[in-house]
Predict the 3D structure of the following.
Amino acid sequence: MKKMNAAVLTQYRKVEWKQADIPEISGNEVLIKVSYACICGSDQHVFMGEFHPRTTLPLIQGHEFAGTIVETGPDVKNHKTGDRVAVDPIIWCGHCPACLRHHYPACTTLKLVGIDLDGGFSEYMKVPENMLYKVTDNIPDEHAALVEVLSIGFHACKRAKVKEGDRVVIWGTGKVGQSILQALRTKTQNTVIMVDILDERLAIAKNAYSDIHIINAAKENAVDKVKELTDGEGVDIAFEAVGHTLDLPGVVNPVRGCIQSIRGGGTVCVLGLSSEPSPIVMKELIWKEGIIMTSRVSHGEFAETIDNMNRGILKPDAIVTDIMHPSETQKAFEMLEEEPHKHLKILLKFKQ
């Protein structure tokens, strides 16, 4: 069996750069030589053991990655060696009630490459052809690895039915919040507001899109400021992309803040994967006859993301704070945990 190098999670909070078997392909599978992979918020939770017992060790993480096809199985029809591709990591069952309604992100047994089985933090990775999206020559390899996270933003916009003229607030300026912002600016040019407690992350958003408004919720009343910026009316749509929150005196919980920020009949779309209950007051939503909904992963938005990236409309470099060698994956996880204000999206560069 031929060998490759991979960043292997051998125990929770410990990644080792070590040799592993290069996957053998068959049927409709392709073998990809990984160029870049990204560390996602979910990867951080897996690293810390928060997905146990869903995850089993040893595990090669990584569900955001891109590369070049170096081998194709006998049943592969639409791809060839040399194609540059981004990989949609979602695996659905196809027969649960959600799948039968073609609502694949709600699959009862949804699995992701890099979480439920080995992923892209390795020199080579095999996937079935149906998980591939071709990447145009205009898109550099490091941007191709960001297609997955940016597609989450496009999916959230689709779920919330964003349209031109909508005024929007995004609570949370991490990886997902920044991805929603990028997708939003292809949908509406009206008021967009970003809320966080980290000035450094707010600055990333503001530097990319100078026309947006930013609010540090630890320094001023975010709901009051949102109302002020929307002439007292509130926004049409509020996205919650914080997840785990810090309970700070006088600072509203992000989900409740979203509810308080919308206009009558507005929409709250929650993406933050918090394990803790969110304290909300339902009558605040009911009085507005507002809609509260959720968004999870993506649902075919890779094509839309690649198209916008190809046309130069998106700003993928804006969310990348570090590029590191994959042998430093352990260090990268520690940086994200210890200094979240300094690091956002870390790319692992496999390409030599």
Summary: The domain at 153-294 is CATH 3.40.50.720 (Rossmann fold).
